[in-house]
Design brief:
This protein is α+β, with helices and mostly antiparallel strands. It is built from six helices and 14 strands. The strands form four sheets. Strands 3, 4, 7, 8, 9, 10 and 11 form a seven-stranded mixed β-sheet that branches.
Amino acid sequence: MSKLRLNKTQSSFSVDSTINRANQVRRDTDSIKTPSCTIYDVDYAIISYIRDTIKPTVTEDGNVIDIPIMYANGEKWSQIQKHGYMRDQKGKLMAPLMILKRNSITERDTLKKLDVEKNPSGNAQTFRNRFTQANRYDRFGVLNNAKPTQEFYITSVPEFVDVTYELLIWTPYIEDMNKVVEAIMPTGGFAWGTTWKFNTYIDDYSFETVNNVGEDRIVRATLPLRTKATLLMEDELRKSTLQKRYAVKQIKFGSEYQTDEFPAKIIETGKTYSQIESETDLISKITKQAQDRS
């Protein structure tokens, strides 16, 4: 008894779709890189813009000092929550300093996409590759009037999200804090980033002065950042988000046939092809005249 073929492995209510071999195109030979924009790219865009474009500085003893900026990992943020500031390995208070902390990621209500398990046709972006190795100019293609092969790349629609951050700034004096805030304030609403760029908005500023008994004085400012980001992963549901396709071509097949009557007569009689053809025409004419008389 043959083994039963399961045709409802993905859903109990519908039959599995058949595999289209035309969509299974290899991509290990092309040079097109799969586009991706991850959460790391968004974080790096914010930090690199502050470090390389804004370049906040403070003046201490006549020397201009660049303020270092770091990302708030688990250990650093635990120390900030416990003390409200950070100390180095020797116990010295770290100021001036900037820390970036990501709070949340929410999908934009105005730019929602159709999130379904099976991506329907049309819910993707299509791009055409203008030059391919198959369309190289050669004289053979010109003589045969060969049409160029159109190569397309289909990518998924990206996720449009809002990413919120907290930018924490520590300086020894209020005067230094004012200069840092004045350098960052005009960039609100700009596209932050060096490679990837995202519109970033600054919400309400908050300030706090820590001056406890027996501790160093420090000024802290908190800047809430709201970034309009776009996320596109390289893989979705274990499938690449960039698929390769070719344009449809029309193929025509013509019929060809060969008769073995004349070659056999040539071999038997030793006559040429034209002689046998004339004799055959004469016989057909005589046969037709006989039929007309009857």
